[in-house]
Amino acid sequence: MALAELKSAIPDYAKDLRLNLGTVIGNSLLPTQALWGTVLACAIASRSPLVLRELEPEARENLKPEAYRAAKTAAAIMAMNNVFYRTRHLLSDPEYGSLRAGLRMNVLGDPGVDRADFELWAFAVSAVNACGACLDSHEHKLREAGVSREVVQEATKIAAVLQAVAVTLDAEAVMASS
């Protein structure tokens, strides 16, 4: 199983990450589609070939084709949106906020899966990419859809742990090759 291999690759100094990885995926309160879509989208957003290589097959097994595609789409569209809206938010000139974005985001109209799942995946990717504007927007949509704070926090924990695992394992790979 890929999750077990990923956990075994985590060095002892990062034992807490190993434990947290098992918990956020193995003991998640999220339904299967929401969980594995979040895992896949965050694995992509982590930019770690190792993390993605180990988790993608299990995500593919646990997701219907349309959900698998939508999770990848969430990662792709948020890679663009997070840079754009984070920049707008960070600029001291508020006039940028009144300019038309002019970026195609048609998938947001019909992501091909339950809207709340897609919003959860977009939220989690925004956590990895540290875009406060997108986090606020997607959290607001999730809460409007009746998604609990506990579910939102669960996605945040998955994003945090996968990002930390990616940083740790990628750093280990670089140091091992030096």
Give the count of structural domains: 1
Basic shape: globular
> Span from first to last CA?
29 Å
DSSP helix count? 8
CATH superfamily: AhpD-like
Report strand %: under 5%
The low-confidence runs, each spanning 5 or more residues with pLDDT under 50, are none
Rg from alpha-carbon coordinates = 16 Å
Q: Your description of this structure?
A:
It catalyses: N(6)-[(R)-dihydrolipoyl]-L-lysyl-[lipoyl-carrier protein] + a hydroperoxide = N(6)-[(R)-lipoyl]-L-lysyl-[lipoyl-carrier protein] + an alcohol + H2O. Disulfide bonds join 131-134. Residues 94-175 form the Carboxymuconolactone decarboxylase-like domain. Keywords: Antioxidant, Disulfide bond, Oxidoreductase, Peroxidase, Redox-active center. Homotrimer. This protein is mainly alpha-helical. It has one domain: AhpD-like, CATH 1.20.1290. Helices cover 73% and strands 0% of the residues. It contains 8 helices and no strands. It has helices at residues 2-9, 15-26, 32-45, 49-62, 65-90, 115-128, 132-144, 149-177. The protein is globular, with a radius of gyration of 16 Å. The two termini are 29 Å apart.
